[in-house]
TrEMBL record, chain A:
<keyword id="KW-0732">Signal</keyword>
<protein>
    <submittedName>
        <fullName>Uncharacterized protein</fullName>
    </submittedName>
</protein>
<feature type="signal peptide">
    <location>
        <begin position="1"/>
        <end position="24"/>
    </location>
</feature>
From TrEMBL, chain B:
<protein>
    <submittedName>
        <fullName>Uncharacterized protein</fullName>
    </submittedName>
</protein>
<keyword id="KW-0732">Signal</keyword>
<feature type="signal peptide">
    <location>
        <begin position="1"/>
        <end position="23"/>
    </location>
</feature>
TrEMBL record, chain C:
<dbReference type="GO" id="GO:0046872">
    <property type="term" value="F:metal ion binding"/>
</dbReference>
<dbReference type="GO" id="GO:0004222">
    <property type="term" value="F:metalloendopeptidase activity"/>
</dbReference>
<dbReference type="InterPro" id="IPR001915">
    <property type="entry name" value="Peptidase_M48"/>
</dbReference>
<feature type="signal peptide">
    <location>
        <begin position="1"/>
        <end position="24"/>
    </location>
</feature>
<dbReference type="InterPro" id="IPR051156">
    <property type="entry name" value="Mito/Outer_Membr_Metalloprot"/>
</dbReference>
<keyword id="KW-0482">Metalloprotease</keyword>
<dbReference type="InterPro" id="IPR011990">
    <property type="entry name" value="TPR-like_helical_dom_sf"/>
</dbReference>
Length: 201, 245, 389
């Protein structure tokens, strides 16, 4: 979800340093093949093409998009460990992110997500609209819907996520897009993709 | 989504904008698209801002310049209309719920245009699905039809220009930075023009350039800017473009 | 993002330049004569107003504006009483859903009050002093001077940037340093004028220094929690556009002493007006991931007594941190809240989750059943029901 920004930094640094080809760009995810995501055992089988952004929100995360992450952002969290934030700190000293803990209940996960977004996006306009039990990676899981608006942009976005704790690590897939058109258009194929997720090939 | 980072990058890109490091595309249109002859185009109130840029890259807005620019740009648009082969209807300022809907779509247009620049025009960060030859597939969704209701127009035109003229201090910094091999731009001259099919919401054509020419504070410059903004406008009779920056 | 930058700039415009009329800051009790509806004159100023007008157009439709009629009417009422009907008419007031302590005045007369400020003021007299302070910026044209000064400040940052790394964000994110981003001289003048407006409107000016004392305590706790040193007694830092809070408290104390004694505090009216929103504002604060600062803030608010919403908020704070001992403390706090009001369903929910996470499964489930019986339609009802088996 924060990939392209990092991408822009990387691209800018590339320009600044004049380096020729240091940075792994965005790559195509082909339809119909099972792929591992987020440098983890998490795999999914997309039924249609996606773009994998070269820039990652954090060490064990990965973002896919159709039209750019401001318009559709599918992020995989592949086994966040206890004591780690969901994604890279934005300002560790002045507004540190909350950390995941393996002792959390499933109901704590939407709250962790909401708080992380509020801090990282610097907006109180993040809401968890509903949550319900689900099955994910063969485990008990929580599925929740959320919404948020960033300051200075005023585009309302909607999101849907599913999260489970497996072996003490957090696995989660989130999808978010502008409420106008994009969320409704893409959520169907995202749900199919999420249903295909499992650990291992 | 990182707003802070975005703000920081905004600041940094003012300070350290990469100048033409990559040959970047500026314009594209939906392949195979043809506008119905004589169809009218609904123009949403252009977003125009003109100011100066201090050494630090801070925008110093200037109301007189903006007012001049608005008048010159309006006049230039009026003249350019003849070359576009389509009548332009200026959208009335809406109120109430319609105003909120327009605001939402203007915000969305800005995000879509930025995404086109970032993920299709900018080679360094291009998405694999967006770099296939001749492809231009972007949309704002069919809900955009509500904006055109009652106008009788099949197309909507969004325009945005933002100019900050470099101050002497900024130009000095540019020279010093050049010697240090750090690219720094002097001034911001950005313009987006986007044509949307009001029935489908598809983006038919976008011309987005963060390094535009033409001093919009003068009649000639505004004409040049409008010519640049409308360059490649689908189905247009070629508009005489100004002579380089 | 350009917009965000401009917004930040406008919201934060400040500094010296503005001609401070000799004696304006001395001579207790004297308010400047009201000059009537002001229009911008110079190129710089008109440019600034234009940008402010444009920003305000966006602000008006912003999702961050709280549109609750009663809350707006209350804040506006206090503002009008403080500065008088003529001055009041020159200002548009926006209550913003932003959980930090801040209020900003744009050069064109658009005044923003943040929800984090409403959570932290204790009385109408304090609110009046702050609103008067913001109006003083408008009346004394402080925004214009800041534009001139801001140019110099960012110039320094930019030259440094070429050599490698000064982030302007540091300026924005400073805890209480950024509270009212105008210059130190302007801030001091506005503080004193604000106190005088309040006193002239019949509010007790002696209330004002306490705001800054409380903010210092909170900021100290935040700094401690983040393993940073306290800024409490600092000399003014390079970026700080404000006098230190200690300095402000001392200045205000001196100013209040020079004003005629008496005046009301209006604390009950303030508490009553904020009451419908307090839970929401507390929730925003809890989600800032600032355990120590929030704990101090809650204890400050609770000086008037621990009510169920404060006990609940503190319990949520402890449960959120989630150390085993926190879960025990949280369960105790939820029980206290339930003791005050057995019909506070959210406390049953929290109690259940704290006990479950702490391994007390049966008692936890029982508490959750209480919650679900009271709130069968809760957004997470099915999720909680799944924890019962």
């Amino acid at each position: 979800m924060m990939g392209p920004m990092i991408g822009r930094v990387a691209a800018a640094l590339l320009v600044l340093t004049g380096a020729a080809a240091a940075w792994a760009g965005n790559t195509l995810v082909a339809a119909g093949q099972r792929v591992a995501v987020a440098k983890s055992a998490l795999t999914v089988a997309p039924a249609s093409e996606w773009n994998r952004l070269g820039a990652r929100p954090g060490r064990q995360t990965e973002t896919w998009t159709l039209d750019g992450d401001p318009l559709n952002d599918l992020t995989f969290y592949g086994g966040i460990e206890t004591g780690r934030p969901l994604f890279r700190e934005v300002a560790k000293r002045t507004k540190p992110l909350p950390h995941f803990s393996s002792t959390m209940l499933l109901t704590d996960l939407p709250a962790l997500f909401e708080q992380s977004y509020r801090i990282a996006l610097d907006t109180p306009l993040v809401t968890i609209d509903a949550s319900e039990p689900a099955s994910f990676l063969g485990e008990k899981a929580v599925r929740f819907r959320y919404g948020f608006t960033r300051q200075g942009e005023e585009v309302k976005r909607q999101g849907e996520a599913v999260a489970a704790i497996v072996g003490g690590r957090l696995y989660m897939i989130t999808f978010e897009a502008p409420s106008i058109h994009f969320f409704g258009r893409d959520i169907g194929r995202v749900r199919d993709l999420v249903a295909s997720a499992r650990l291992g090939a | 989504m990182m707003h802070r980072l975005a703000a920081w990058l905004g600041a940094m890109s003012c300070i350290l904008s990469p100048v033409a490091a990559f040959a970047q595309e500026k314009s594209a249109s939906r392949p195979g698209f043809a506008m119905a002859p004589g169809a009218c185009i609904l123009l949403f109130r252009p977003d125009i801002s003109v100011g100066a840029q201090s050494t630090g890259g801070i925008a110093e807005p200037n109301a007189d310049w903006t007012q001049e620019a608005r008048e010159h740009l309006d006049a230039a648009l009026g003249r350019a209309q003849q070359g576009m082969g389509h009548p332009i209807v200026t959208a009335a300022a809406p109120v109430g719920e319609a105003a909120a809907a327009l605001a939402a779509y203007r915000a969305l247009f800005s995000v879509v245009a930025d995404s086109v620049i970032e993920y299709q025009f900018f080679p360094g960060n291009r998405l694999p699905t967006k770099k296939r030859a001749g492809q231009f597939d972007w949309t704002m969704g069919p809900g955009v039809a509500a904006l055109g209701q009652g106008s009788g127009c099949g197309y909507g035109l969004f325009l945005l220009t933002e100019d900050q003229f470099g101050s002497t201090g900024r130009k000095m910094l540019q020279i010093v930075a050049l010697m240090a091999r750090v690219p720094v731009t002097s001034g911001v001259h950005k313009g987006y023009a986007g044509l949307v099919d009001l029935r489908t919401g598809e983006l038919i054509w976008l011309n987005a350039d963060r390094q535009m020419g033409g001093d919009v504070r003068t009649a000639d410059g505004a004409a040049k800017r409008v010519a640049q903004l409308l360059e490649g406008f689908p189905g247009a009779v070629p508009v005489p473009a100004g002579s380089g920056q | 993002m350009i917009r965000a930058g401009i917004a930040a700039l406008l919201a934060g415009l400040a500094l010296a330049g503005a001609p401070v009329r000799a004696g304006a800051a001395s001579g207790a009790g004297a308010l400047p004569p009201y000059a009537g509806l002001y229009q911008p004159s110079t190129v710089d100023e008109r440019g600034l107003w234009m940008k402010a007008d444009e920003y305000e157009r966006q602000l008006r439709d912003s999702a961050f504006v709280i549109r609750d009629a009663a809350l707006n009417a209350y804040v506006r009422g206090v503002f009008c009483r403080t500065v008088g009907p003529d001055r009041c008419a020159a200002v548009r007031l926006y209550v913003m859903r932003v959980p930090q302590f801040n209020a900003t005045m744009m050069p064109n007369g658009a005044l923003q009050i943040w929800s984090g400020l409403l959570l932290r003021v204790r009385s109408e007299a304090e609110l009046a002093g702050i609103l008067g302070h913001e109006f003083a910026h408008f009346e004394r044209r402080h925004g214009l001077g800041r534009l001139r000064h801001g140019r110099v400040m960012t110039d320094i940052a930019s030259w440094a940037g070429v050599l490698g790394g000064v982030s302007g964000l540091v300026v924005q994110t400073q805890a209480i340093g950024s509270i009212f981003t105008h210059s130190r001289a302007d801030e001091s003048e506005a503080d004193l004028l604000g106190a005088r407006y309040g006193a002239a409107a019949g509010y007790d000016a002696r209330a004002l220094p306490a705001i800054w004392m409380r903010l210092m305590d909170e900021a100290d706790a935040t700094a401690l929690g983040r393993r940073q040193r306290s800024h409490r007694y600092d000399r003014v830092s390079f970026f700080a556009s404000h006098p230190t809070s200690a300095q402000r408290a001392a200045d205000l104390r001196a100013a209040a002493a020079a004003l005629p004694p008496g005046g009301e505090s209006g604390d009950q009216r303030l508490v009553g007006a904020i009451a419908p929103w307090r839970s929401a504002f507390l929730e925003d604060q809890l989600k800032l991931n600032d355990f120590e600062g929030t704990d101090v803030l809650l204890r400050q608010i609770a000086e008037a007594g621990w009510s169920e919403d404060l006990l609940f908020a503190r319990a949520e704070l402890y449960r959120g941190r989630g150390h085993p001992r926190d879960l025990v403390a949280a369960a105790d706090l939820y029980r206290q809240a339930i003791g005050l009001n057995a019909g506070h369903p959210e406390s049953w929910r929290g109690l259940g989750l704290a006990l479950l996470r702490g391994g007390q499964v049966d008692e936890g489930r029982q508490a959750l059943r209480h919650y679900l019986a009271a709130r069968p339609d809760a957004a997470d009802a099915s999720m909680l029901a799944a924890l019962l088996t």
